[in-house]
Amino acid sequence: MAKPNARPGAAGATAAKPRSAVAAWFDHHLQSLVASLGRMLRKPWATLLTVGVMAVALALPLGLWLVLENVARLGGTVEQSREVAVFLKQGIDPARVDTLATTLRARADVASVTLRTPEQGLASLREASTGVYADAIAAVDENPLPHVLVVRPRGDERTLADALQALPETDFVQHDAIWRDRLDRWLGFGARLAWVLAALLGLGALLVVGNTVRLDIQSRREEIAVLQSLGATDGFIRRPFLYLGAAYGLTAGALALGLLTAAEFALRQPLRALAESYGSRFALGGVDPLQAGLVLVVAAALGWLGAGVVTGHFLRQTRA
């Protein structure tokens, strides 16, 4: 009687290798992501409402922040607001004026010094004047204007203005530090307001995602109960809902960026025309790629967090 061949695999059958834990973990993450996107697509109207509300909640503080950033950049480009005009006394020798300008240029707190002679000042005044004022200026025989040193400060213009006022050659000093201080205070208030709005509306976006995920959980209570009876962990059950919340947040962040981009295109041309009417080349700035990426990350994190809070609360109730 022939002995049976006991060697495993002799019949050509090959035992399948078990998948590693890492591969199974990756497969479940991928499956959870695809299933979450599928649930969003199966409910387009509900998804659009959720994403739209989140997008508006994200776009409002982002829009305010962009406005403040552009106002700050506009204030930084209006260098005349920081220039200090030093009107010298009448009758000063031009050589002494040149020496004084050279001395001021050597100061550490001075960025540049521009000398305007009385002739240049009178010519500018004639170009800017019309009507009766132009006739009056044309009738002037002797130039009454003094030498003017336009000093652009490197630091605080108020300290420099006080030092320039103390010079013996100075008649009076003109600068607009009050306007600058007010602008800085308004920008500081606006930045604080933007953070408050971001916190409140971010909380609103988190609650919107949480409520949407809660409704999805309620519709799948029986499925979750079956998974729990089979020994599924909380992480296994929570994972699809986390991806669902992150997908809501990411889509809302992209829509918010789209809304801001559309607003920028709508306002760019009128603002450029307004700036050109004042002789400025200021152009409206938008969201750069790094900032856009940060917005998407924060929006996805809000969605993930909202889904995690709601799902964790539900699982704690069912395990109790």
Automatic annotation (TrEMBL):
UniProt KW Cell division keyword: yes
Domain ABC3 transporter permease C-terminal: 196-305
Superkingdom classification of source: Bacteria
Annotated TM spans: 45-68, 193-213, 241-263, 292-315
Keywords for the protein's UniProt record, in alphabetical order: Cell cycle, Cell division, Cell inner membrane, Cell membrane, Membrane, Transmembrane, Transmembrane helix
Membrane topology: Multi-pass membrane protein
Keyword Cell division: yes
FtsX extracellular domain sequence ranges: 83-169
Subcellular location: Cell inner membrane
Any coiled-coil regions, as ranges: none
Main function: Part of the ABC transporter FtsEX involved in cellular division.
Subunit structure: Forms a membrane-associated complex with FtsE.
Similarity-based family: Belongs to the ABC-4 integral membrane protein family. FtsX subfamily.
Protein name: Cell division protein FtsX
Organism of this sequence: Lysobacter brunescens
Phylogenetic placement of the source organism: Bacteria, Pseudomonadati, Pseudomonadota, Gammaproteobacteria, Lysobacterales
